[in-house]
Amino acid sequence: xxxxxxxxxxxxxxxxxxxxxxxxxxxxxxxxxxxxxxxxxxxxxxxxxxxxxxxxxxxxxxxxxxxxxxxxxxxxxxxxxxxxxxxxxxxxxxxxxxxxxxxxxxxxxxxxxxxxxxxxxxxxxxxxxxxxxxxxxxxxxxxxxxxxxxxxxxxxxxxxxxxxxxxxxxxxxxxxxxxxxxxxxxxxxxxxxxxxxxxxxxxxxxxxxxxxxxxxxxxxxxxxxxxxxxxxxxxxxxxxxxxxxxxxxxxxxxxxxxxxxxxxxxxxxxxxxxxxxxxxxxxxxxxxxxxxxxxxxxxxxxxxxxxxxxxxxxxxxxxxxxxxxxxxxxxxxxxxxxxxxxxxxxxxxxxxxxxxxxxxxxxxxxxxxxxxxxxxxxxxxxxxxxxxxxxxxxxxxxxxxxxxxxxxxxxxxxxxxxxxxxxxxxxxxxxxxxxxxxxxxxxxxxxxxxxxxxxx
Length: 456
Prior knowledge:
By secondary structure, the chain is of the alpha/beta class. The protein contains twelve helices and 17 strands. The strands form two sheets. Strands 9, 10, 11, 12, 13, 14, 15, 16 and 17 form a nine-stranded antiparallel sheet that branches. An eight-stranded parallel beta barrel has the order 1-2-3-4-5-6-7-8, surrounded by five helices.
């Protein structure tokens, strides 16, 4: 079970609840020395240092080392699987991003030398934000600045913390901008296989999208609806690779968070709803080393990618089914994988691209990536192994500068480019998809179908 406790004040009944739900993790804030959380395999501990964090972060890498050294004696009074660094730090200014990255790297280095594990970053829901531009590439660029710290955490076997709050009427538990949809998108931008993630705060929070804060579920919904949303969050999180826990805020919540409190009666009503969920299927196998090694070295995947501008035809480097030469593609028509490979991206990449699937594989000894954009529906998942003809989605209406049902299709030879990368970048070898299919013996029936849909 991923859903578990975020405890501000311990209550004896919480231990019984943990025994029934059987989560792997639990979190407690400011525990007394020697405290051991019962009935969980791993405990995450947070000691409030909100009045100190900014100064340590501003000092960069040395600040991270100093903070871990200063906290070490307090942390080890409460044995835990991991200890949190700063909570919801600045991740939106250039200086803040640079300082946070270096502070995190220094903290990981010091913690490694001391033999303890950290939960780093602990980013607030919906952040880094897009500066009010509506351009997702702004948020993606900011996340790219933090990626070295994320890679360091993964290599050290440490954890990354993310928050996932939602507000009824604005978005739900799987919402794209703040909640678990944003968690999934953030992890896709970093693209660090093997990363261990703790959603170390989640639940309903009124302070979403400019609304007044410090309003929990008791002020905004009722038990039945919130229970259903918690179950929805659990179901969604099981599909996000790397997520190990959803820490529900807040058990024993204190002022001013009283309306967030999970009382015993409501907590117990969650038990049958959560434990009745089906066991999730095993995660799909990861791609072979030849693909993974190149994925991990793509430095420009998601940083500063330009959005497409208005255009009519592509110069034989991309294809728009149905829009070129008057094709007859229908909305909802199945889209199939053109070659054997692995899905390295399957999500909504933003306004100019819409729902995107990227497949990577090796064809005739060359690494090839295929992009399908503007999908109506995605019918695959990251790291799924696909074979020629496997359904991966359906044709949709363009989310961008084109109207009407079509599929924007790209093939890049020799590299795996990101979902928002510009096909006009001549540093990458984008080719005419239809010509490439024929040249490399992609199944003739599949090629004929694609050419028909492409109007040729």
